[in-house]
Design goal:
It contains seven helices and no strands. The protein is an all-alpha fold.
Length: 137
Amino acid sequence: MVRGSRAMRQWYAERMAKPKSMPWRVPAGFAGAFAEFQTIPNVGKATAEDMVRLRVRGMEDLAGRDPMRMYRAIGKLDGERHDPCVIDVFMAAVEYAKTGACKQWWKYTPERKAMLAATDVRLKKEKGAPRRTRSKR
């Protein structure tokens, strides 16, 4: 995650955003990580590319990452909302990096849905019930 001024974050996002018209190149120093990520079950070239764009440096770094933050960050970099199944793939990759456990990415869907539902309920409780305003007569 990039910290700093808004201008710095925008510059970073523009620099790291996937170019639409040019082929993507692995940044210097990330070729080993890019190849290593493709050895993870459920991770192909596109997901490995996303991980490198998020500046994940290797398996140890991946093991300490939060899949939801990764999902939000890649959405910000691309300027669009990705399919929620990307969260499942990130969850599978992080779990593999932590434990070496190999599960198909779709096995994480119930866990993701429960996590998102719990987050949604918590946000509703924090906001409280909507207030009704009385119309002036």
